[in-house]
Design a protein that fits this description.
- The chain is of the alpha+beta class and about 180 residues long.
- The chain has two domains: about 1-105; about 115-180, AP2/ERF domain (GCC-box Binding Domain, 2-Layer Sandwich).
- The protein is built from five helices and ten strands, in the order E-E-H-H-E-E-E-H-E-E-H-E-E-E-H.
- The strands form four sheets. A three-stranded antiparallel beta sheet has the order 3-4-5.
Length: about 180
């Protein structure tokens, strides 16, 4: 069963499977702080609980709990390694916190999944005059894939190399077929 919880500051919803939802709604500490009803959308796009508590001495402390990290630490800690220690969503939806969607990944893998800053709208694709260059990072170095007539063709070429090099952990551009590319 899938559970959807509306966020406190957004119309968006966080998505959980039954195991996660049960944990979030029965853990004594999470129940005490009303965690499930106080999840907000963070500026990074993930779910977060954030509350300011007043200490007995009059000072204040801010408690911040990132939803995806909490869940991964509770249920997926056996997958964490020295290299793969950042939590990410396989489908890139940071609010989809079903166990099947969360995974530990390396900093390099996380970097490959970030939204592109290229003006073409595609990761690894850059305009050079009337043509488009496709490049991919291999061991921290930029590697030329080729020159193409359209950004979509370059994105498709990037996708092929990304799949070959990184498998499911690689970035894949979503290419609109009506623009001349193929997915």
């Amino acid at each position: 069963m899938i559970y959807k919880v509306k966020l406190k500051n957004s119309e968006d919803v966080a998505i959980f499977d039954e195991t996660v939802y049960e944990f979030l709604t029965t853990d004594p500490y999470l129940v005490k702080i009303d965690f499930i009803n106080n999840i907000r959308r963070h500026s990074s796009g993930c779910g977060v609980f954030q509350k300011v508590w007043k200490n007995p001495d009059g000072s204040y402390i801010t408690e911040t709990i990132y939803l995806h990290k909490l869940i991964a630490e509770k249920f997926l800690s056996h997958q964490k390694t020295d290299k793969e220690n950042l939590v990410g969503a396989k489908n890139n939806n940071k609010l989809d916190c079903r166990l099947e969607n969360l995974m530990y990944r390396s900093r390099a893998q996380a970097s490959r999944q970030r939204r592109t800053t290229s003006n073409t709208g595609y990761t690894g694709v850059y305009r050079e005059g009337a043509r488009y260059r496709a490049v991919i990072s291999i061991d921290g170095k930029s590697s030329h894939i080729g020159m193409f007539s359209s950004a979509e063709e370059a994105a498709v070429a990037y996708n092929a190399i990304s799949r070959q090099l990184y498998g499911e952990k690689g970035k894949i551009n979503v290419v609109d077929r009506s623009e001349g590319g193929t997915v």
